[in-house]
Amino acid sequence: MSAKTVFPEPVVGVDLGATKIYTIVADKDGKILSASKKPAKGERGSDVVLDRVAETVDDALADAGMTRKDVGALGMAVPSPVNQNTGVALFSPNLNWRSLPVKDMLEKRLGLKVFPDNDVNLGTLGEYTFGAGKGAEVMAGFFVGTGIGGGIIMNGKVVHGRNFTGGELGHMVIMADGPQCGCGTRGCLEAVASRIAITRDLRAAMERGVPTMLTDLLGTDTDRVKSGVLKKAYLAGDELTTGVINRAMRRVGIAVASIVNAIGPDVVVIGGGLFEALGEDLMPIVRNAATLHYFGPSGDGVAVELAALGDDSVPLGAAAFAAGKIA
Amino acid sequence: MSAKTVFPEPVVGVDLGATKIYTIVADKDGKILSASKKPAKGERGSDVVLDRVAETVDDALADAGMTRKDVGALGMAVPSPVNQNTGVALFSPNLNWRSLPVKDMLEKRLGLKVFPDNDVNLGTLGEYTFGAGKGAEVMAGFFVGTGIGGGIIMNGKVVHGRNFTGGELGHMVIMADGPQCGCGTRGCLEAVASRIAITRDLRAAMERGVPTMLTDLLGTDTDRVKSGVLKKAYLAGDELTTGVINRAMRRVGIAVASIVNAIGPDVVVIGGGLFEALGEDLMPIVRNAATLHYFGPSGDGVAVELAALGDDSVPLGAAAFAAGKIA
Fold it and tell me: Containing H/E element for B63?
């Protein structure tokens, strides 16, 4: 967190995920004054979810000794692309939203200026403003978890692209005609390097009878290969697990090189659940693969860094996004 | 060419290629008033090449009834990344240049303000300013010839990136661990879809004894598979040629989708020798493959267009680049 003033006024940052809401109040220095969390209850519909968001905002403000009048704006991260002209969330499979006017809906509830955007875009902006990307001119972020999200910041602004899907770096194709991706196409980075892809490859190997300590760790419950289990097997040196994960990480590195060759960022930040669990071990593999795939001098001096803010990257990015709108 | 004033003053645009120099004078409307061409004679060294560039400039100005005093600046496209802070061309294998101060060297010869940049960046800018990308907010260009070059324009500006290699879209990796690329790495778009890659695949098939009319067209001279020969065999429906080229074009389409998913341009322009020869036939294949690889709505309304300016894209882009610097 910076010690100097970075926001024109205190702001609220909301991370609305598929399962939980995490809301912060940040002061002018970008310091988190207070926080509030609640389950999102997405299955009860968007009105309930947004009521609950409003409750976390009031809770966090109260904790900071503030009221809605004391903050300049609210930034909200949602698991959906967001039309920046209308504030409409375009589609969120996880929350079962389609064309939902989240900006209007939350502004009516709170009487605050609300600025929504995609959660991974805002996580990238959080790392750019306060984390591993501080000082970059152009930054790319990859967030490797169940899927792979991404974001691009150029000259302080999120790159939204024509259809507000900009920064979908997990859907650069790095293996033409490769494995099926959850997005419906083939060979995306997400299809070969996300936790879903890693789990798929581990299961297939286990079904072929490849020996692994995962058999003991998971029993029959191969549906639930969480980062914690992967971490345990990886750190124990389990041959199958390290092989599959390291191959996936080389592919992340290849995608890093692709975006460096295409747009030339100063800094690439890698985060997400898998890197929160194993970042120190995985970053050298990502960096080496990137180095092998840079075009000429394209990677000279490019910093490929582990994300620094953990769960705070998204609400801090949301706060920074809102602050940028009222600056 | 636009009918309205687009440049603050008439400008000179130079396309310095590995083998030839093509120089134009453009008026305030971006109309080409005159042109001059000369062999580059790169083998005689950079001083000779830049003397010859200066001669084409004076020839073209004389043809337009102008002197150096009548133009505001000169833009120069070179086959090299160019440090935009210093005007130094970083490396050109074709001209055998390393760290050559082209801006200073040509300014001394001409007494004009000189603005050099990479030739494919400027070809992209030419298409953006006057050709198939007119009116775009964000545009990407792919130029498929011997190799594959690219460029990105955002908000009217060439994206140079940290090391001035921005826009190297031919070196996005689309086939991890795939064929060797001329750049030293593996699986780049250029390694699977350029004329070098197409020729490699055709030769390998011919060596395996696959029947093809290329055997008659080429005789033993498989070193010289030019666009003209490919065009002839392709249009005649030669099974090997159409199969290899169509597969390459699907990979170009995959790369189009990758950059659309990553940064969300409005327009993607495809040009270069292969598309000058066969563009109308190849564009539907590129578009279909792109459509199959867009993430969600990322490709909605994105125009994937054949380049419109042919050889004029580069010198017109050079002119536009210089005009933008003095505007």
Answer: helix B46-63
Site from B263, B285, B291, B302 to mutate, A interface, most A CB atoms within 10 angstroms: B263
Per the prediction, chain A carries an average pLDDT of 95
Which residue in A165, A188, A298 is closest to B297 by CB distance?
Answer: A165
Alpha helix stretches (DSSP H) within chain A: 46-63, 102-110, 119-130, 189-193, 195-207, 214-218, 227-235, 239-263, 273-293, 313-326
Instruction: Confirm or reject contact between B249 and chain A (CB < 8 A).
Output: no
pLDDT, position B1? 44
- Number of residue pairs across A and B with CB atoms under 8 Å? 177
Q: What is the rounded radius of gyration, in angstroms, for the C-alpha atoms of chain A?
A: 20
A294 touches chain B (CB under 8 A): yes
Q: What percentage of chain B's residues is helix, strand, coil (to nearest 5)?
A: 45, 20, 30
Q: Give residue A94's pLDDT.
A: 85
Task: Compare CB distances from B266 to A162, A176, A257 and report the shortest one's residue.
Answer: A162
- Coil/strand/helix, residue A86: coil
| C-alpha span between A157 and A160 (Å, rounded) | 9
d(CA A181, CA A190): 7
Reading the block at residue A162, the tokens are 């024509």
Q: Give whole-number Cα distances, A254 to A134, A167, A173, B46, B172, in Å.
A: 23, 16, 11, 36, 9
Tokens 């001394």, residue located: B108
Of B152, B160, B165, the CB nearest to A295: B165
**What residues in chain B have per-residue pLDDT under 50?**
1-2
What is the rounded CA–CA span in Å between residue A183 and residue A194? Answer: 13
pTM for this predicted structure: 0.95
Q: At what angle do helices B195-207 and B273-293 cross, to 10 degrees?
A: 90
The structure tokens 């030293």 sit at: B184
H/E element, B35: strand B32-39
- Residue A201's contacts (CB-CB under 8 Å, 6 or more residues apart) are A244, A247, A248
- Binary contact (A254, B187; C-beta < 8 A): yes
Q: How close does chain A come to B200, measured CA to CA in Å?
A: 19
Name which of A137, A163, A300 is nearest B298 (Cβ-Cβ): A163
User: Which residues of chain B neighbour A255 with C-beta distances below 8 Å?
Assistant: 173
Rounded to a whole number, what is the largest CA-CA distance in chain A?
62
Contacts B180 to A, Cβ<8 Å: none
B155: which 2 tokens? 């908000």
Which runs of E-coded beta strand occur in A8-93?
11-16, 20-26, 32-39, 74-78, 82-83, 88-92
ipTM over 0.90: yes
Question: Are A295 and B154 within 8 A, CB to CB?
Answer: no
Angle of helix B227-235 versus helix B239-263 axis, rounded to 10: 110
